[in-house]
Amino acid sequence: MKKYLTSFLIATAFVISPLSALAGSYSWGQTFLGQLQGQIGALFPQSSAVQVRVAQPALYIKSSGGTITRKKEATSLSVVWSTVGVPFSVRLGTIKFVGSASGTEYILASNLLNTGSRAVLIPTTIPDGNYTLEIKMTYGRTTLSAKSSGYYTIVTPAVIPPSVSVISPNGGEVITRANRLGNFLVKWTAPGVPATARIETIRLRAWENGDGEYVLAKNTVNDGSQSAPIPFSIPDGPYTLEIKGNYKGVDFSDKSDAPFKIFTTPSIASIEPYSWTINRRSSQPIAFGVRWTTIGISSDTRMDVIRLRGVNSGAEYVLASDIVNSGHAVVAIPSDVPVGSYQLEIKTSYNGTTPSRINPRYINIVVPISPTSTSVFNPQTPTASRPSIISLSAYTGIAGSVITVNGNGLGSVNQINWSRGGVLMRNFSPEIISNTQIKFTIASGDIPAGYYEMTAVNNYGKSNAVTFTFGGSSAPAPVTATSSSATSSTQI
Is there a smaller number of Cβ atoms within 10 Å at the N or the C end of the chain? Predict the structure, then answer.
């Protein structure tokens, strides 16, 4: 067994790379070799022919070069190397750049452990150019060195100072608004200013006097665009846009190359009468007050027409024409305008536009009921031909609902009148259920909420009045029979 092992070890040997050169150069190599052979001889006394080989130290750089874009601060570079036959505890001498043209050396690091990789800093003092990476170290009495197979090229990008440039509006644009409110889009570029930086102010400056300034945004993100609101206080006219900021102590600003215009689209915002109910008491024209508001239309502009438009017929009746845009006027309702429901309309012409407005609410022209005789009807003695209202039921107070009337002599009723303050507001045709009960439907029309009087009318006159509240949360008022004179009525 011993002979077999000895023969095996002698045949295979130990391959540790020749140390003959080291043993001849320095005494520690001879001592190491002698000790190693002695130990092997002690283990294997019959193997005196054993040969010991030790690895020869070597150093290699695995990094092959590349482009290094310099930052304002010192730039980091990862250096990777390997060694053969050198313990990790042995320290590197230097890691350095050597200029390819000048041969100038710049030390990047020194006295580092042999770990195989290390991040080093490239000082800002090293000029741009091509460099060879070189590593040197000493192991015993041997100096080892290696160089990168390619160049490292250091490049410093051009320094771009902070600035801003307005893209839009940049001159000649027309920004329109319908009601002095609204937004418009501001765009810009800011070279040398990161997106995370802030734009201090975006403002409008009046072109004509240069003194009017209106701030649109403050401390906004530098993302190149901003939806800026137009304050109500900004009048129409020419303006320039100005953007200002500061980045790392450097101020920058820009304004639009030429003025642009803010323009309010002419419009009529409202029109309404002073009264929604008009009593026709004679065949003469009726004085009628009207008020309106305009936007973007000068006060010296003439309003072309104010008129009534029939809700059902569509007929138009001119109340006034060619009047000053003062916001109010007293007009005349012609005598040929029949009773009924109407809408109020106003029109004008301004800067090539034709603004107009129609109020959707109805104006009612009515003929008030007036007493004719007191002898025809005595409400204290109601009969089938002389109605008397006792109560209301199924009351909802909502337009489109059905209201039921209970009383005496209701089978002869041909209409129901609603009045307010003695002025007739609506006529309704009843549905006869019995001599003591009728009902009617609020089918259409603009009936405003409020306090009303209701009477039932037959061929002989009207019943006692019943007061109630319509269109509100209040319950109907208690029914009270009151004396009333016989009247004639006019159907709307």
Answer: N
pLDDT tens for 297-307 read 888 899 999 99
Percent of the residues in the chain that have a pLDDT greater than 90, as a whole number: 27
DSSP for 166-196, please give it: EEES-SS-EEEESSS--EEEEEEE-TTS-TT
Tracing tokens 């006869």 back to the chain, one arrives at 432
Cis bond before residue 87 (omega within 30° of 0): no
Query: Nearest Cα to 139, choosing from 101, 83, 98?
Result: 83
Residue 65: closest CA among 94, 19, 93, 97: 97
Strand partners, 451: 469
Give CA–CA dist 432/416, Å, rounded: 12
Q: Taking residues 363-385, what's their average pLDDT?
A: 51
One-letter amino acid for residue 25 of the chain: S
Q: What gap in Å lies between CA 303 and CA 327, rounded to an integer?
A: 10
List the beta bridge partners of residue 434.
437
Distance CA 201, CA 44 (A): 90
Contact between residue 419 and residue 455 where contact means Cβ atoms under 8 Å apart? yes
Q: In the chain, what are the domains?
A: 2-43 (no CATH), 58-155 (2.60.40.3880), 165-264 (2.60.40.10), 267-366 (2.70.50.70), 371-487 (2.60.40.10)
Q: Which residues are within 8 A (CB) of 127 and not within 5 positions of it... i.e. 6 or more apart?
A: 154
Q: Give the span between the Cα atoms of 173 and 186, in whole angstroms.
A: 12
| CA 445 vs CA 130, 311, 364: distances in Å | 91, 9, 9
pLDDT of residue 374: 33
Q: Which residue has the tokens 């050198």?
A: 86
Which residues pair with residue 96 across a beta bridge?
A: 107, 134
Six-digit token string for 465:
């009045």
Tallying the residues shown for the chain, one arrives at 492
